[in-house]
Amino acid sequence: MRAIRLDETGPPENLMLVDIPEPALPDDGVLIRTTYAGMIYADAEARRGTYYKETKLPWFPGREVAGTVEAIGADVTNIQPGDMVAALVFGAGCYAEKVLARTAPHQMADGRAMPPSDIVRLPLGTDPGESLSYLINYRLAHLLVHGWARVERGARIAVHGATGGMGTMILEIARTLECESIAFVRSPAEAEFCRKLGAAHCVDVTTADYVEAVKDITNGAGVAFSFNGVGGPTIARDPFILAPFGELHLYGYVAGKQVFDPFATDGTMALKTFNADDFLRTPHFAAASEAMLARFAQGNLMAPGRIFPLEQAAEAHKAIESGEICGKILLRA
């Protein structure tokens, strides 16, 4: 079967299309014929070797897959061949024509311990590509908004990288809370996209100082929460858009890492970081999963931003790093 492999960390061009044997099926295994593989920004970080966890080489990227169950192991009872599923595979390997998900804890070939894959049977009629916009990002956004920030109904929030996979889900969830959302965008097209997701205001950061814009929008009051997956210079500037007792939630660093001075302002604020692993065994993750399934049942899911063929994985990584595509980026196997 065809798969994408990384032998050396570095630029997108290091991602190679290779032929490898199909995975052997263990008793706890679920073999999925891939329709789409999902991409998250952490894939690019791992490819570059800048992710907070070491990239073990050779590396077969991708932790999200949606497709049809082709075969199951002897111990698997709750999934059947022919089921359409989406799965979060913690050991990666989803940029491939077939993916092995596991229903029990297991060890990787390099000795790493892995939890069971998170396999979700999709409701009849759910588009597999649309489901991948929600499999990871919706639940992470739910954990951020409900589990960690505990955003109250009607709160005023700011969202960096508002058209990305996480930003779009934060906006969607904030709309259900009737929040006044301020989306930071980089073009009129992105602004239009975010308004459809419920953003009350859009600030083009390429033409405006977002700190001054937020002050104008809020009449100097500021926002209760800033959700920031961009990082870089925005880390130091975000305290200036917060209301008293406001919270700055840092969940990524697309624009890089930067030293933070907590005393740059004289206001009372909270700085919160985020690692989804800390939530996996908490009631918050179960609640996020239940919300995701309810969202699937509701229908009218967000369509992917762009779909690349598997052999163009390098181009897809360039696209996710550019930040120029609104919504989820997928690979078609």
Q: In summary, what is this structure?
A:
The protein is an alpha/beta fold.
CATH superfamily of the largest domain, by name, is Medium-chain alcohol dehydrogenases, catalytic domain
CATH class value of the largest domain = Alpha Beta
Show unreliable segments: none
Q: Which fold does the CATH topology of the largest domain refer to? A: Quinone Oxidoreductase, Chain A, domain 1
Order of helices and strands: EEEHEEEEEEHHEHEHEHEHEEHEHE
Shape, principal axes of CA atoms:
globular
Q: How would a crystallographer describe the biggest sheet?
A: 7 strands, mixed
CATH architecture of the largest domain: Alpha-Beta Complex
Radius of gyration: 20 Å
Total of helices = 9
Q: Tell me roughly what share of residues is in helical segments.
A: 25-40%
Task: Give average pLDDT, whole number.
Answer: 96
What multimeric state do the chains show?
Answer: single chain
Classify the secondary structure makeup into a structural class: alpha/beta
